[in-house]
């Protein structure tokens, strides 16, 4: 506050300095929520924060000056009128407002959240009226309620204010939201929590319906436990309130005309959700327990039953909803981005920009939510360009135990499994509200679930429901949890189930008859005996105009000769359209040179480079009705400065994406620079590709090695999803690969890993060596009647290599060649055939030229898997006098393609052939870090391939 403003305050305030405590509290309230204070005070407080003053005034400075007013008794100070506050009354009023604020900020720490009651109840001094100078004599005094959202007027006795605050903030719901910076969001939550809507009276019929949900939740677990003794099912028992919470989500979705709800969850409680939420037939589940599978299921490798997904249509409140439970491996939380990506694809299909028609719901375990980095990565994507899905409803089934390590709700206990107070604390990074709720209060669970759905609908951002409960059994049904958690499980044994507690409550209220609970239990069990679902019946896969028939994309084969050529007229027409920039657009000089060269390439005056060919692949696909979605940490310009799918005005920084203007649909071409994440982003793109077969979805690693950070996505989804779950996807992955002396982390795309993961024609692994090969490979991915993953070792130095170029004719008449043979040598004079892939071919070619070698043929294998047997045999037959067949690679012997394809190279040789190989020596690292050493190794590899080699056996 400037000196003049301070003196103005002293000289004109309508209250004397002794009331500074009140002013301080009111100022605190203003900082929390400007709209909650009187307009005149709001104007004044804003004036002292005027940003036009030379020095920014700290909050502490302002409060210090308020206190100084209270101390100073300067001559000429204004005398208080009869209407002014008494100093002590003002101090008390300020204390009340501070108490209100602390209940909002810290009330959750004193809430009754632990059903077992084993976590020591926290003592929060800030919530004690005495801490603020309030005592028993103040309880019946009427105070201004400030911003408290209640229906009792703006003045209430302190006793009533405290009753409201305790009821709202320290009962069985603990709300965390005061860290949110958006005032509108905080005020919305306060209105819902503190107003008349808080814990509204539940109609008897609604209570009976809630009881039915709990009967079902407990009933299926007890039934499976008794019928299939000892079999793993990862019981939900103790977290039964999840089922009514999910039912409330479906009701809320139906009320808002949502068309699809997609659920991601780990294995705990999964079978319960399948039966009681999605309506899967108990008979089908029982068949799985008994080892009976359909013929279709037996055609795949399959997976355990608590990993399997499910999709169906159900009727809720007279509306039809499509429900999906995503397939999920036992890798904690990895399903999160997969669900988000699939939901995004469904939203795009509907042009649903705000996420009103397709909603993601993620169900977590407490320890996994706190411990797995992919949770943070996924939430970091939640509001980013190209990845926002309109908000996710997160439900944490908080068992207070992670695997075998107890993790009590109360933070003052010694935590072994996390540092943060709550498992949900990561949500504060993203200002997502958190509603902790006692799982043994199912009405409160339903209330916060409704609140969460409403918040998501209003603000389109993530929201967390933390159902604080317990795990009645061990990690699985064969585990003995009391070995490591004796005190907790002593309490669990004595604790009634949620259903039993709620049944007793309703009986005591008179909401149900004395034996009505038992009747519901019997009816549910009888339904299971008949193999019938009496909670929710599916309608089957009814479908709608947005439904995709995936059978059209799983019947093709790898050898389909898809026509990927494009006429010259079409190419030039497409280029003319994608090369146009706004008239006032100024390109950077280096980018202008690229555009000038591309103009020459389109005219046939200059050989075609990779950036041109890739751009034309995308343009022609969009022109033919496909969509393209390309993402990566530097995807718009390309890490190696070759793509420039998006260009930036050199004068004003505005950007322009020419390919987006080929079609009026803004989703036909999407290119995103992503946050620096591999795991979540790749998981998202995989999920997107499983839901949208007509979009060429591409994830590009900044360097191929960076795929390490997303290895679980490759292992558990991309390479094996088809075999385990029958989930097809056409995701393409670009992994820059090439040994240019850039050290261990910037050389290898780990080719050996993708070949090791290849079996049963599950994916393609390609190493294109020319722009035309890239063009045809990308077009083949969409034009062929098959959608399976494509792993591409993309080039780095080849992007500008003078020999790695193509012509327009290569695009108009060519097609992707799994093997490119050598037509520069006399076939009869060849004594040695060197097979290789990628950049090393050009090094070999230049060395052969320099050394004037005439009897060595260089053959490129561009598709390493599925191995092109016929083309390989044709290449061998082309050189009938060859004796040596050599495999050459830049990678160390224990890496690259050698160990994965040597049996294929040897299988089709003739008796006169001798198989040799040339590699770097085996190494524990992908490459050396010294350029001189690299060059020496590279020279040895090239010379060895042309004249030497090690025997394969």
From TrEMBL:
Cellular component terms per the entry's GO annotation: cytosol; oxoglutarate dehydrogenase complex
Domain of life: Bacteria
Cofactor requirement: thiamine diphosphate
EC class (word): oxidoreductase
EC number: 1.2.4.2
GO molecular function ontology, one term from the record: oxoglutarate dehydrogenase (succinyl-transferring) activity
Pfam families per the UniProt record, alphabetical: 2-oxogl_dehyd_N, E1_dh, OxoGdeHyase_C, Transket_pyr
Domain Transketolase-like pyrimidine-binding: 608-801
Keyword field: Oxidoreductase, Thiamine pyrophosphate
GO BP terms, alphabetized: tricarboxylic acid cycle
Gene3D superfamilies: 3.40.50.12470, 3.40.50.970, Multifunctional 2-oxoglutarate metabolism enzyme, C-terminal domain, TPP helical domain
NCBIfam families for this protein: 2oxo_dh_E1, PRK09404.1, PRK12270.1
Cited function: E1 component of the 2-oxoglutarate dehydrogenase (OGDH) complex which catalyzes the decarboxylation of 2-oxoglutarate, the first step in the conversion of 2-oxoglutarate to succinyl-CoA and CO(2).
Record family assignment: Belongs to the alpha-ketoglutarate dehydrogenase family.
This protein's name: oxoglutarate dehydrogenase (succinyl-transferring)
């Amino acid at each position: 506050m400037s000196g003049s403003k301070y003196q103005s305050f002293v000289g004109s305030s309508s209250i004397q300095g002794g009331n500074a405590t009140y002013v301080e509290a009111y100022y605190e309230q203003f900082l929390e929520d400007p709209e909650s204070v009187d307009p005149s005070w709001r104007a004044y407080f804003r004036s002292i924060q005027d940003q036009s003053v030379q020095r920014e005034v700290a909050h502490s400075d302002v409060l210090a000056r308020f206190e100084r007013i209270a101390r100073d008794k300067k001559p000429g100070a204004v005398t208080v009128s009869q209407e002014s506050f008494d100093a002590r009354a003002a101090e008390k009023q300020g204390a009340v407002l501070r108490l209100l604020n602390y209940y909002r900020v810290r009330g959750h720490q004193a809430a009754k959240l632990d059903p077992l009651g084993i976590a020591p109840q926290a003592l929060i001094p800030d919530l004690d009226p005495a801490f603020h100078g309030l005592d028993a004599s103040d309880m019946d005094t009427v105070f201004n309620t400030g911003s408290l959202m209640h229906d009792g007027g703006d003045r209430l006795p302190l006793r009533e204010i405290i009753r409201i605050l305790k009821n709202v903030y320290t009962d069985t719901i603990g709300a965390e939201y005061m860290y949110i910076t958006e005032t509108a969001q905080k005020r919305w939550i306060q209105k819902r929590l503190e107003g008349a809507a808080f814990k509204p009276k539940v109609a008897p019929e609604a209570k009976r319906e809630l009881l039915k949900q709990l009967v079902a939740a407990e009933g299926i677990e007890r039934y499976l436990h008794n019928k299939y003794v000892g079999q793993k099912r990862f019981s939900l028992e103790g977290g039964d309130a999840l089922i009514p919470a999910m039912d409330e989500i479906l009701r809320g979705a139906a009320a808002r005309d949502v068309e699809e709800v997609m659920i991601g969850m780990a294995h705990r409680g999964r079978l319960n959700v399948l039966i009681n939420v999605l309506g899967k037939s108990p008979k089908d589940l029982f068949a799985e327990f008994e080892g009976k599978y359909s013929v279709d299921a037996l055609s795949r490798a399959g997976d355990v039953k608590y990993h399997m997904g499910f999709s169906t249509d159900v009727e809720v409140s007279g509306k039809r909803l499509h429900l999906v439970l995503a397939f999920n491996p036992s890798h904690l939380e990895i399903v999160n981005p997969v669900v988000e990506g699939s939901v995004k694809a469904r939203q795009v299909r509907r042009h649903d920009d705000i996420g009103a028609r397709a909603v993601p719901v993620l169900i977590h375990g407490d320890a996994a939510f706190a411990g797995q980095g992919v949770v943070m990565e996924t939430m970091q994507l939640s509001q980013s360009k190209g990845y926002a899905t309109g908000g996710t409803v997160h439900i944490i089934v908080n068992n207070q135990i992670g695997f075998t390590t107890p993790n009590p709700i109360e933070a003052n206990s010694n935590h072994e499994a996390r540092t943060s107070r709550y498992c949900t604390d990561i949500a504060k990074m993203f200002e997502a509200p958190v509603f902790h709720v006692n799982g043994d209060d199912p009405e409160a669970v339903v209330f916060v679930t409704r609140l969460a759905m409403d918040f998501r609908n209003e603000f389109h951002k993530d929201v967390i429901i933390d159902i604080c409960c317990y795990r009645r059994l061990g990690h699985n049904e064969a585990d003995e949890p009391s070995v490591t958690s004796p005190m907790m499980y002593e309490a669990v044994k004595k604790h009634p189930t949620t259903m039993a507690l709620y049944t007793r409550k309703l009986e005591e209220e008179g909401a149900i008859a004395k034996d009505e609970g038992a009747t519901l239990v019997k009816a549910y069990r009888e339904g299971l005996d008949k193999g019938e679902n009496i909670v929710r019946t599916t309608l089957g896969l009814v479908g709608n105009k947005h439904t995709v028939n995936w059978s059209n994309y799983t019947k093709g084969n790898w050898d389909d000769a898809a026509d990927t050529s494009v006429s010259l007229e079409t190419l030039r027409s497409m280029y003319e359209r994608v090369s146009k920039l706004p008239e006032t657009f100024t390109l950077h000089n280096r980018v202008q040179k690229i555009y000038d060269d591309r103009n020459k390439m389109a005219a046939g005056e200059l050989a075609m480079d990779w950036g041109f060919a890739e751009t034309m692949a995308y343009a022609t696909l969009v022109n033919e009705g496909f969509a393209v979605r390309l993402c990566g940490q530097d995807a718009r310009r390309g890490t190696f400065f070759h793509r420039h799918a998006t260009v930036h005005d050199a004068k004003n920084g505005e950007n322009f994406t020419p390919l987006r203007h080929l079609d009026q649909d803004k989703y036909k071409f999407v290119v995103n620079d992503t946050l620096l994440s591999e795991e979540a982003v790749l998981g998202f793109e995989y999920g997107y590709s499983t839901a949208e077969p007509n979009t060429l979805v591409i994830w590009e690693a900044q360097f191929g090695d960076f795929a390490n950070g997303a290895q679980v996505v490759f292992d558990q989804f991309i390479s094996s999803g088809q075999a385990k779950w029958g989930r097809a996807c056409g995701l393409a992955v670009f992994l820059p690969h090439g040994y240019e002396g850039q050290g261990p982390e910037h050389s290898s795309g780990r080719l050996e890993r993708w070949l090791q993961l290849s079996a049963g024609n599950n994916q393609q692994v390609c190493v294109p060596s020319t722009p035309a090969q890239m063009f045809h490979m990308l077009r083949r991915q969409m034009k062929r009647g098959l959608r399976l993953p494509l792993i591409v070792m993309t080039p780095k130095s080849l992007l500008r290599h003078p020999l790695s170029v193509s012509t327009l004719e290569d695009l108009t008449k060519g097609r992707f060649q799994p093997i490119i043979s050598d037509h520069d040598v006399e076939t009869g004079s060849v004594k040695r055939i060197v097979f290789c892939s990628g950049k090393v071919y050009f090094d070999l070619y230049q060395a052969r030229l320099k050394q004037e070698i005439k009897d060595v043929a260089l053959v490129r294998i561009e598709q390493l898997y599925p191995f092109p047997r016929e083309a390989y045999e044709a290449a061998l037959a082309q050189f009938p006098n060859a004796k040596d067949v050599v495999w050459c690679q830049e990678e160390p012997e224990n890496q690259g393609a050698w160990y994965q394809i040597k049996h294929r190279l040897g299988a089709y040789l003739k008796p006169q052939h001798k198989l040799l190989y040339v590699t770097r020596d085996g190494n524990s690292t992908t490459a050396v870090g010294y350029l001189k050493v690299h060059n020496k190794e590279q020279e040895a590899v090239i010379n060895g391939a042309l004249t030497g080699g090690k025997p394969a056996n």
